[in-house]
């Protein structure tokens, strides 16, 4: 027996599996895999649901300064976050001269929305959702509800926001 044949024989003794057997997945292994994956998904969904119910909402309390009137031209916007919160907001200076402030997260799948100057529309680029910039109401697309809104008010030349009295959340 040549040295090469001898090596092959020894290798077969050490690894007594046939190639086909080693790549086969048994029903039992497949069932174990499916159980593990579904279990992981179930636990993940449970954690997300628990977080939504157990952690308090980041409600806006009190009034908050955003910027000076001169900092936001007509048709312009300013993004801001209220101290102690992580929710992004957008302040819009409408062409009518009014100010509006909304959460900058689309109510569909939370993409960032932006104001289209001169249109009166706040747009979501992810699935072409549109909101009325004056009211926050849905105009088109898949968003299920209006953009959450803050009340905007002025003190002299300074712009402030606070929670809307009748705000749902
Ligand atoms: S995330 Fe805004 S329309 Fe889908």
UniProtKB/TrEMBL annotation:
Keywords: 2Fe-2S, Disulfide bond, Iron, Iron-sulfur, Membrane, Metal-binding, Transmembrane, Transmembrane helix. It comes from the Bacteria. Gene3D superfamilies: Rieske [2Fe-2S] iron-sulphur domain. The chain crosses the membrane at residues 33-54. GO terms for molecular function: 2 iron, 2 sulfur cluster binding; metal ion binding. Residues 64-161 form the Rieske domain. GO terms for cellular component: membrane. Its cofactor is [2Fe-2S] cluster. PANTHER family: CYTOCHROME B-C1 COMPLEX SUBUNIT RIESKE, MITOCHONDRIAL. This is Rieske (2Fe-2S) protein.
């Amino acid at each position: 027996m040549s040295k090469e044949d001898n090596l092959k024989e020894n290798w077969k003794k050490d690894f007594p599996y046939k190639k086909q057997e080693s790549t086969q997945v048994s029903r039992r292994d497949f069932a174990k895999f499916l159980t593990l994956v579904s279990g992981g998904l179930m636990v993940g969904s449970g954690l997300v649901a628990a977080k939504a119910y157990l952690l308090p909402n980041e409600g806006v309390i009190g009034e908050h300064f955003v910027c000076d009137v001169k900092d936001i031209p007509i048709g312009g916007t300013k993004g801001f976050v209220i101290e102690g919160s992580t929710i992004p907001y957008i302040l819009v200076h409408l062409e009518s001269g009014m100010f509006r402030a909304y959460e900058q997260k689309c109510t569909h799948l939370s993409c960032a929305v932006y104001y289209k100057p001169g249109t009166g529309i706040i747009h979501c680029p992810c699935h072409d959702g549109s909101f009325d910039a004056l009211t926050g109401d849905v105009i088109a697309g898949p968003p299920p509800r209006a953009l959450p809104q803050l009340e905007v008010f002025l003190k002299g030349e300074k712009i402030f926001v606070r929670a809307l009295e009748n705000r749902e959340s």
